[in-house]
Amino acid sequence: MSTAKGGNGADGTPPAGGKGGGKAGGAKGQRSRAASAGASGAAPRSRTGGSAVPVGGAAPLTAGRIGVYLLLLVAAVLVACAGTLVQAAWFPGGLVLALCGVGGLFYGGAAATGTSAGVLIPGAAWLMTVFLLLSDVRPEGDFLFGPGVGSYVFLLGGILIAVICATATQRRMMGVRAG
Predict the structure, then answer these.
(1) Does this entry carry the keyword Transmembrane helix (predicted)?
(2) Global pTM exceeds 0.85
């Protein structure tokens, strides 16, 4: 092997600072694999078990991931409609049941996708659906949200649950340990 390609000399000793440079005498412009991994464009990986999701949360957009996002979007609309009806029907228990459904949707979306988009996409769909249902007043004066504190607790509680789930997902992706 020649020393120009980074190999050892004829006597088996590494070159002392030549053009090929090994560990002893590194050449300019060449880096080891470990040193150049960040510069090669590869995204750093999460510290939570070596998953394939990059730290920044920019997971690759595949057909399966798009399908999961669409399912979460449809589920968010259904949970918003069901929660709207249930929270007013059985006041204390229905409100708790509706908020548990919202929490399950958001936490499940975060767990299924491993990204904060798993919370943000159904959160936005849920919020838009609830606001559309809230603003929809029939000519007779009826609307789905009954007057009272339960409607506001459902609306603000759902927003708060979405923020908590999105924040917890961000902390988990950054590798922050609980406690």
Answers:
(1) yes
(2) no
